[in-house]
Amino acid sequence: MNRKKNLITEYRRYYLPLEFPVVLIDGPIWVISDIPSDRLHFHNCMELGICHSESGKLEIQNISYDFKGGDITCIPRNVPHTTYSTKGKLSLWSYIFFSPAILFKGMMNSSSLELSISKSQYKEFKYILNEVQYAALHNIVLSALTELREKKENYQQVVKSLLFSFYIMFLRIQKDEGIVHDIKGKEDMPLVIKAIDYVEDNYSEKISVDDIASFCCVSTSHFRRVFLSIMNISPLNYLNSIRVTKACNLLLSTNYKIVQISEDVGFYSVANFNRNF
């Protein structure tokens, strides 16, 4: 009997400078293959994409959404997904990755700074916004792309304002049009995403795998088994990889000493920091 292949979910980390946590991925090479991936992936930040041409599908877990040229996609952090073009086509994209929690800090209620999906009943976001129905948002994204490409004087302030406007309008859409949707056949994924969100928000504290499992209301052994089967990495290694990534950000963006950075990201000893780094 053939065993069912485990679903592997890949974590893709993007370095977002603390002073301006926005990254543009752009250009003629950014085309999406027409071959569906055998794995999902998710990011440590929000992914804002715009499809310039052709069509294809966006998959969020076992739900498939059609996209076409002109559409905007917006994927919150820690949401496993994959994208592929229509058979025989290569869709052209631009992507903006950013952290609302850092970029908009002090500009809005902290509880609204990060969208997350972490319950067994998922709120079905409108991940795809078409150009006709959401023309205003489409124009905002195009303006942000132009600013990021040209980098004229004070472009960072302009991009911040544009993305803030986009984000507020996007939140309104979720509130007005979002619905509750059951994800069938993926009982373990909500648990893993809940754990990922918890780690992202608490990595600087003295948390352990036991603490994460307790937060998810499951036994530690069950949690380790489920997390490893989906993420292809142990919970402890994942936690430490997040801490190392945050440390790299601080090393590149500040003049903090190693001992301070190790404490700020949750290692609490230089020896432990060095070992994991």
Would you mind describing this structure in some detail?
This protein is an alpha+beta fold. The protein has 9 helices and 13 strands. The protein has helices spanning 100-103, 135-150, 155-177, 189-202, 209-215, 220-231, 235-253, 258-264, 270-276; strands at residues 9-12, 22-25, 31-32, 40-43, 46-53, 55-60, 63-68, 72-75, 81-85, 91-98, 121-124, 128-129, 179-182. The strands form 4 sheets. Strands 2, 3, 5, 8, 10 and 12 form a 6-stranded antiparallel beta sheet that branches. The chain has a 3-stranded antiparallel beta sheet with strand order 7-6-9, with no helix packed on it. α2 runs antiparallel to α3 and α5 crosses α6. The longest helix has 23 residues, at 155-177. Residues 1-6, 117-123 and 179-186 have low confidence and may be disordered.
Which outline best applies?
A: globular
Provide the succession of SSEs: EEEEEEEEEEHEEHHEHHHHHH
Rounded to the nearest angstrom, the distance between the terminal CA atoms is 42 Å
* Strand tally: 13
What is the CA-based Rg, rounded?
19 Å
> DSSP strand (E) fraction?
15-25%
Please mark out the parts with pLDDT under 50 across 5 or more consecutive residues, or reply none.
1-6, 117-123, 179-186
Mean pLDDT: 83
Task: Quickly count the helices.
Answer: 9
Q: Helix fraction?
A: 25-40%
Which structural class matches the secondary elements?
Answer: alpha+beta
Q: For the report, how would you describe the main beta sheet? A: 6 strands, antiparallel
